[in-house]
Amino acid sequence: MFSPSSWNFLGLGSSETSFREARFIVVPVPYDSTASYRSGGRDGPRRVIEASRYLELFDTELEQEPYTKGVFTVEEVEPVRGSAAETVDSIRSITGSILQKGKMPVLIGGEHTITLGAVRALPEDTVVVNLDAHADLRDTYLGDSICHACVMRRILEEGREVVEVGVRSMSKEEFQYAREEGVPIFTREAVREIGPVLKRIRSLVEGRRVYLSIDIDVFDPSEAPGVSTPEPDGLSFREVKEIIRDVCRSSEVVGFDLVEVTPIPGNTITEFLAAAVIYKVMGYVR
Question: Domains of the chain, with CATH numbers?
Answer without folding.
Answer: 9-284 (3.40.800.10)
